[in-house]
Amino acid sequence: MDCRVVRQDFPELMVRGVAYLDSAASSLKPRSVIEAMVAFMERSYANVHRGVYSISMEASRAYEEAHEIVARFINARSWDEVVFVKNTTEALQLLALTLAFNNVIGRGDEIIVTEADHHSNILPWVRVARMVGARVKLLPVDGNGVPRWELLEEMVGERTRVVAFGHASNVTGYVSDARRVARIAHSVGALVAVDGAQSVPHMKVDVRDLEIDFLAFSGHKMLGPTGIGVLWGRRDLLENLEPPLGGGGTVKRVRLGDRGVSVEWDELPWRFEAGTPPIVEAVGLAEAVSYLEKLGMENVESHERRLTEYTLKRLEELGGEIRVLGPRDPKVKLGIVAFNVGNVDPSMVGLWLDQHGVAVRTGLHCAHILHDRLGAPHGSVRASFYIYNCPEDVDKLAESIEELLKTIA
Ligand SMILES: Cc1ncc(COP(=O)(O)O)c(C=O)c1O
Q1: CATH number at residue 314
Q2: Is 26 within a domain?
Q3: Cβ of 11: how many Cβ atoms within 10 Å?
Q4: Which of 114, 178, 233, 378 is 20 to 30 A off residue 34, Cα-Cα?
């Protein structure tokens, strides 16, 4: 994979010419995704699953095909295990609500998340636990912000209903061994939910190989548009669950009888996709997946690991003022490097970098507990990579930081 060739496919890079190092927040979009969405809106757009006329059927087919493409990408057993939602946050929220609504989680039960998790994988569980009288337990992290999975066996018990965790950290980039976690959780009959927001775009994620039960991820972090995300769930689990959100598109039949309104839920995945779904966005996501598949996820991953290794080396050369958060071994992490520059406020570093043509994310990255544990309560500067980044982007970052160090010396 040649990043210089790949870059040409991304109009925004060509127009703005910045070193875009914020793909963990959201990725840029290749021309093929933009064009697929425009072409669909210009020629094939109509609502899905409602009309018998040919354009509506064409749109429905494209929408269903998007489910198939995503299902193949994560090696799901069938296309109807893929539920389209708005983003990872909504996927995890929908899952937590569904499990509570169906009494899978109830009074006195326990849910385990980790201190390394993004708020999107902590708050939905905390809210649902409060609603039903369950308890959320947080698996601690070590000094590098790595979840202490060796403690999981002691933490799980007969009341553990769910173990939910981020596959890859959006701060340290550390990748957890999902299969190992799944096996421990399953040994006590708990369900395993994985927040794949930072892993699915960057490495091969095979839901069967990982032996997990649920997976959530966002289209906009993997070359697709905003407004679409995925909740994948094992079919045998999903088909026995009622959706917490009802409405158009979720039912086969609604009747008014002597005992009020009765509902016959639709097949999977429709019963979980309430209302008009993200149709155009699904077409864009399908195109994004095809683009990634053409590159090959192994190539995507190894390219980003090389950039990470190079970044760690360049930052190390700048001396002791630079503090990298999390493990420094590129073999255990994906393309994310969070750091601080002496005592300079991260947002000031971000503004400085912006003036030098480098776009990074600064702040607490929706991971307040993790930053507290890492001794960085004011946040960090985060550089994150994708397929269109080249070593020159890292050089630009390192050179700009070097300049900054000179000004504060
Ligand atoms: C690990 C992780 N989980 C969840 C999310 C939430 O993603 P979204 O904002 O697309 O819902 C993010 C986004 O940064 C993330 O990094």
Answers
A1: 3.90.1150.10
A2: no
A3: 13
A4: 233
Domain end, chosen from 265, 293, 321, is at 293
**88 CB near ligand 1 (under 6 Å):** yes
CB distance 110 to ligand 1 below 6 Å? no
Q: Measured from the CA of 169, which atom of ligand 1 is nearest?
A: 1
Catalytic annotation, pick one of 92, 100, 366, 394? 366
Residues in the chain: 409
- pLDDT, tens digit, for every residue of 236-252? 999 999 999 999 999 99
Residue 176 sits in the same domain as residue 195: yes
CA of 169 to the centre of ligand 1 (A): 10
What distance, in Å, lies between the first and last C-alpha atoms of the chain? 40
**How remote is the CA of residue 89 from the centroid of ligand 1, in Å?**
6
Ligand 1 atom with minimal separation from the 86 CA = 11
| 101-141 pLDDT, tens digit each | 999 999 999 999 999 999 999 999 999 999 999 999 999 99
- Compute CA 347 distance to the chain's CA centroid, rounded to the nearest angstrom: 24
Average the pLDDT over 37-52 and give the result: 93
Is residue 187 in some structural domain? yes
Question: Ligand 1: which atom is nearest the Cα of residue 90?
Answer: 11
Average pLDDT over residues 317-332: 95
310 and 239 in a common domain: no
Last residue of a domain, one of 248, 273, 293: 293
Residues 404 and 256 occupy one common structural domain: no
CA of 198 from ligand 1 middle (Å) equals 7
| Number of domains observed in the structure of the chain | 2
Q: Looking at the structure, do residues 220 and 95 belong to the same domain, yes or no? A: yes
| Domain-located, residue 27 | no
Instruction: For residue 215, give the CATH number of its domain.
Output: 3.40.640.10
Best mutation site among 170, 361, 371 for ligand 1 pocket (most ligand atoms within 8 Å of CB): 170
Please give the residue range of the domain that contains residue 135. Answer: 32-293
Q: Is 170 in the pocket of ligand 1 (CB under 6 A)?
A: yes
Separation of CA 230 and ligand 1 centre (Å): 12
For the question of residue 366 being annotated catalytic, the response is: yes
Helix (H, G, I), strand (E, B) or coil at 358: strand
The secondary element (H helix, E strand) that includes residue 261 is strand 260-265
- Percent of the chain surpassing pLDDT 90: 97
Q: In the sheet that 380-384 helps form, which strands lie side by side, from edge to edge?
A: 322-325, 336-341, 380-384, 361-363
Residue 50 — pLDDT band, cuts 50, 70, 90?
Answer: confident
For residue 243, is the peptide bond before it cis, meaning its omega torsion is within 30 degrees of 0? no
- The whole-number pLDDT of residue 320 equals 85
Same domain, 168 and 309: no
| pLDDT (0 to 100) of residue 51 | 81
The per-residue pLDDT for 409 is 80
